[in-house]
Amino acid sequence: MGKKWVYRDEGKKISKSVTASKTTEELKDAKVFIKGLLDLRKSQKLEKTYIKGTQKALEYTGNGKVYVDYRLDGTATGRLSCAAYNAKKPMGVSFHTLPREKKNNIRSMFIAPKDHAFITVDYAAMELRVLAHVAKEGNMQTAFNSGQDLHTYTARLLFNKEDITKEERQIAKTVSFLIVYGGGPFNLAETMSIPMSKAEHIIDTYKDVYPGVFEYMEFVNNYIKENGYAYTIFGRRRNLPDVASSDFSVVNRAFRQGLNFTIQSTASDILLSGLLGIHRSLSNNKLSGRIVSTVHDSIELICPLSEIKQVCSIVYEELVNYPYIKDTFNINFDVPLSIDAEVGTSFGESTPVEFSNRGEVLNESELYQYMRESR
Amino acid sequence: MLTVSNPNKFDWASIPLGECCQGNALDAYFTLKLFNLCEAKLEERGMLDLFNSLLSPALEVFSEMEFEGLNVSLEKTGEIGKKLRSSNIDQEDSLYGCPGVKKTDNFSSNNDLIEVLYTREDGLGLYPPDKTAKGSPSVSAPTLKILLEHIDKELSKRHG
Question: B54, B58, B61: which is closest to A236 by C-alpha?
């Protein structure tokens, strides 16, 4: 074959039949090459973006620090975004794309100063908790209120049995997120590599298990249709003029964006409120611990070693009991909010904090031992 | 300053104090005018509370974070960089060992990848499931993932 390429629209179909015509050995060789190529690209991107990018930033700042440009208005959904400043001011890297992978542990490059601890706190299953609250979904609320793992709970209801396999839990997790983001049986079949009929059956069962979710979706769609916008419990709104389009797919996209907005934006505003609460409380308690960054559903802080226990308790109080939201917006969630916190020497090297139900740190001595051994 | 048309190229150090004061005063003036316009709209749309209670106070927290920055371990950065570079070289070496790949192939070159994957006589002989906007066979990550899916499905079919 020469370089001139005659391309036909049935690319995927032909691709499949060409693949089927290969010997098993040829297919295995092709698989090794493609997997290797994808891994190489990922690894090269890590090196270029985070290693070379950070080194360039350090060269520019000259003080051993990098800086992040936060944008409160960076997304249509109301979520925070951040960037690495422009090419003329290469002062930092984009924290929102920092990978979590442990193999190279890029996050461990970002450290706490000497005699300080790096605290990372994540909201657990935040968007699904928001969904359970706004949709007033009784079954989902029961799962959260009884402290159960939502995906295992969902899988038990979906497959109607007690013992759940890892794959079944993964299906339950995938279907929950797919529903929130407007996906259907086709997406489920593709993502989980299961037959379309099975995917359809799972989605139908999901409707029986969590009917409130679908009633909420209908409510949001009707509201958008009538008013041309969606709104959240915090009073944020997103205009969706596409809902007036004569193109059905454009209207559907507006519905998906609207539903997604009511969940994502609420989750983002809960985090923002938590950020303000922590900031206020650190200042009221005259602590020198401070917030250093926020990435998606997480907040990162730095504090002197002597403040670890106090700062962790403040973080728990402000994020789990959310006084800022209660006082300012008069909102009480129907489900508990939950966090996972870790203390360590850097963004990527840390050990979990154990809290009592009242937010006291239970493993203080372990945390200090970890800090001593890590230094 | 709003009065500077291209702030990135502007030499801030050489601006006379008088001009600087005037420029900043104009900034404040226009910002207030804009705020008055926006405030009415926010109120009309029921978003003024959100602005006053959440967005406006958040600016202080974010400006502190932006101002303070984050400490980076040079040692760690170098260590991870070295590890990544060496693993990239190893990965490239193993790709050169695959059938149909020439020592002169560059894995960052789309043309070379098109040859290996689709067109070269002794290459992998696959058919691209997708094309680029310009009509050439795609070697993008999503396309490669589709190819992998086709291969995996075919292999699992053969192995029952």
Answer: B54
Which residues partner with A70 through β-bridges? A82
Residue of A277, A319, A305 lying closest to A371 (CA atoms): A305
The full set of domain ranges for chain B reads: 15-68, 77-158
Q: Consecutive 10-residue runs of chain A (375 residues): their mean pLDDT?
A: 51 75 89 94 91 91 90 79 72 79 90 96 94 96 94 93 92 89 82 84 92 95 96 94 94 93 94 96 97 90 96 97 96 96 95 95 95 87
B89 in contact with A, Cβ within 8 Å: no
pLDDT of residue A102: 84
The verdict on a CB contact (< 8 Å) between B77 and A55 is: yes
Locus of tokens 């983001």: A181
Task: Write the pLDDT tens digit of every residue in B97-144.
Answer: 998 899 999 999 999 999 999 988 888 888 888 888 888 889 999 999
Surface of B (112-151) touching A: CB under 8 A: 113-114, 116-119, 121, 124-131, 135-137, 141, 144-148, 150-151
Which of chain A's residues have a Cβ under 8 Å away from the Cβ of B117?
33-34
Are A65 and B136 a contacting pair at CB < 8 A? no
Contact A293, A275 (CB under 8 A): no
Q: Compute the nearest-CA separation of B73 from chain A (Å).
A: 5
In the structure, what pLDDT confidence band is assigned to residue B13 with cuts at 50, 70 and 90? confident
Taking the Cβ of residue A51 and every Cβ of chain B, the question of whether any pair is shorter than 8 Å is answered with: yes
A9: which residues sit within 8 A by CB, 6+ positions away? none
**Which pLDDT belongs to residue A6?**
52
Total beta-carbon pairs less than 8 A apart between chain A and chain B = 220
Structural domains of chain A, ranges and CATH numbers in brackets: 11-97 (no CATH), 114-127+269-374 (3.30.70.370), 134-262 (1.10.150.20)
A45 in contact with B, Cβ within 8 Å = no
- Residues from chain A that touch B66, judged by Cβ atoms under 8 A, are 67-70
Among all residues of chain A, which has the CA nearest to that of B87? A43
Q: Measured between alpha carbons, how far is A70 from A293 in angstroms, rounded to an integer? A: 9
Residues 6+ apart with CB under 8 A from A325: A270, A273, A277, A331
What pLDDT score was predicted for residue A322? 97
Element holding A251 (H helix, E strand): helix A248-284
